[in-house]
Amino acid sequence: MSDKRMRRLAALGLGAALAMTSLTTAFAADKAATAKVTVDKQPAAVQGYEIDGSNYYKLRDLAEILDFGLSWDAASSTISIDSTSSYKADATKLIQGNWAPATRARIQAVIDANANKGKYVVFDFDNTSVIFDIQEALLVYQIENLEFKMTPEQLPDVLATGIPDLKKELGKSLDGKTVTPETLIADITSDYTWLYENYKGMKGTKDLSYIHATNQYQDFAAKLRYMYSSIGDNFDHAVSYPWVTYLFTGMTPDEVQKLATASHTYWANYGRYAEETWTSPIEQPGQSGVLSVSFVTGLTFTDELLDLYHTLMANGIDVYIVSASPIDTVLAASKVMGYDVPEDHIFAMRNKLDENGVYINEYDYDWGGEGKYAQTQGPGKSTIITNFIAPKYAGAGPLMVFGDSAGDWNMMTDWMDEGDTQLGVIFNRYRKPSDPIWEGSVEASKTIGQADAKFVLQGRDENTGELRPSEKSIMLGETEEVLVRPAS
């Protein structure tokens, strides 16, 4: 719910004199109300009625102006007000919200032309269905709360999983040491061993506030987060994307979903979007030396995207998610944050389970049988659609694909030439020309408002965690709005 909606509802109070959804035979309207109604200090055109000396207004009129959810249960004669959702007079139409008008119009046109015709759409999740990245946020939450189930003996093998060259130089430390996966694993394991023996959430007696003040924790936190970033920067996505999922080794799917739910809730309520920096202590240099790493905090599960999911469903268009985040992380977001996508419509990174039902550090290419489960990133997203989704629709590709970066470009375009995919919706992160989705962004920028546009852009403000009513975005820490990067 937006802060503005919260303030409006609090100021309104929703007293008894407003408890009418319609004027029926229960009351007779004596005359039109003379009281003035203002919203944000502006006059509001709300028809009121004076009945027995009191002023009454229709809740549906107020819901539309103040933008809160409203429903009526005829069976129990109950009016329900939902301050966490937006007002919708028609479930099949998108709310205006902060959509870029031309983008909203194009999406709605595709929905209207294909409603109830057995079609489906596919969403990416991170930086598309949510602003920022749910798994990167979860990694920070997991570190800060020391939510790990591995023993110190297991950790080195987990950290090394999938890395083809443990001696590869990843960079130099602040004090001039050469950093490699091997040196990072040694330092992180040493720190973790101390934490494991001392933290009361593991085998020790010290509480989290005590642990956070120690050099061992600060070194562990900075170097584990650094390792995640450096693997992404130095190795193929086939190495880096599944690597972070191996940190769930020893947990059950239910435990990971519970952890993810706590993380999503925490970051959604964090209320701040900024770049944070962790630096390891000089007193604990280890083999890797003193390291510093920066990352973005905060998540926004926007009203516009939640509404889009439900509008598609209300039009009989099936919704699927294909995400490079771990499956339990996405499942938790769908369940708790209100996307309400069926579990069998969600495809994401999956690890194997052992005979006790706990995760091991091995990707599950055999999920669903016959080795058809690809990594859910880049071309693998199209493989997932081909193997698991399209067969339900006579082999047809998705009607629309929603994404933000290179990892979504294949599934956004692989069925366009065949005419199956009518629209690619790109959430504008001002990507570089080296990112394939830049090509779609350029085309979208040239066809804004065109009825047959193949691509559309949707802007966002990363400083406020909101969509913008424009194709242009404002990047984190900046004030200038931007559309598409120049070619050089």
UniProtKB/TrEMBL annotation:
GO terms for cellular component: cytoplasm. Its EC number is 3.1.3.3. GO terms for biological process: L-serine biosynthetic process. Residues 1-28 form the signal peptide. Its cofactor is Mg(2+). GO terms for molecular function: L-phosphoserine phosphatase activity; magnesium ion binding. Belongs to the HAD-like hydrolase superfamily. SerB family. This is phosphoserine phosphatase. It catalyses: O-phospho-D-serine + H2O = D-serine + phosphate; O-phospho-L-serine + H2O = L-serine + phosphate. Keywords: Amino-acid biosynthesis, Hydrolase, Magnesium, Metal-binding, Serine biosynthesis, Signal. It comes from the Bacteria. Pathway: Amino-acid biosynthesis; L-serine biosynthesis; L-serine from 3-phospho-D-glycerate: step 3/3. The keyword GTP-binding does not apply.
